[in-house]
Amino acid sequence: MKANTRMQRRHSGNCWKWTGADLAPTTRMSWHMGNLAATLQQEQKLAEAEKLYLDVNQTKRRVLGPEHPDTLITMGNLALVLSSEKRYADSEKMFRETLEIKRRRLGRPEHRSTLVTMGNLADVLTAEGQYAEAEQLVRQTLETERRTLGPEHSDTLVTSQGLGMLLKREKRYAEAEGTFRQTLEGRRRAIGPGHPDTASAAYELACVLALEGKRDESFANLRFAVEHPLPAETRLGLEKDTDLKSLHGDARFDALVASARQPAAAVQKSN
Asked: Are 20 and 30 in contact (CB under 8 A)?
């Protein structure tokens, strides 16, 4: 699974209205430490973020209890850091614990916070090669999000792209292609062609088309992705992406690799 496609899916705190303003001093300090950890996580300073999250999690468990909403936020974000560090077994264990508590505490299976954790657990299971359980979980999440949030909600589209990634890893390319097409069209409508998430969806579609031998259409989507704000890690990794191996040796691919090495703003300006 490519980094940052969905493993950085959503921070668990997105679904709780919690400001820390009403906390006791000790817990308020932990809340601020959690915010610092989130910043470090976004900056990919994972070891530092992990240490802070571990300290915050220990404090919140002691002061607030293991099932308090703020404790669950920290657990979820720590699990995301562990998955980014490729410590999938540890991440899976923490996501499972978080999910079990949310299902029991929140009751409704369609609660957005529960769905976030289900999707994140599915990502980890996919990375571990546990495809059957991952697919069951991600399809359940996607069906519920489409029904409760709508087909073009950001969470729904994240889950849809995650399903495409899973199907691609299982070499079910035709199904993956259809899923990526739906994701791309949904993002074009919901957030427009210039958004980084739209570029990422186009890139994933290009990859699966290349795996299917549909070179011309793959190049069209890859060109779109490169001409828009594709994440730097993906832009600079084009040449090493094994999904695109069938495009090597084509002058069009060489031109796109050269273009991708330029800053996104320069690419857009030149086009």
From this structure: no
Tokens read off for 269: 């300006």
Radius of gyration of the chain (CA): 20
As a whole number of angstroms, the distance between CA 9 and CA 119 comes to: 8
* Strand runs labelled E in 26-101: none
What residue ranges define each of the domains in the chain, with the CATH number in brackets? 1-170 (1.25.40.10), 176-271 (1.25.40)
Residues of the chain with pLDDT under 70: 1-28, 31, 263-271
89-92 own/partner pairs: CB under 8 Å, 24+ apart: 89/128, 91/124, 92/121, 92/124, 92/125, 92/128
Residue 250: phi, psi to the nearest 5?
A: -95, 135
* Portion of the chain with pLDDT greater than 90, in percent: 73
Mean per-residue pLDDT over the chain, rounded: 87
Which contacts qualify for 140-148: CB closer than 8 Å, 24 or more apart? 141/115, 144/109, 144/110, 144/115, 145/115, 147/110, 148/110, 148/112
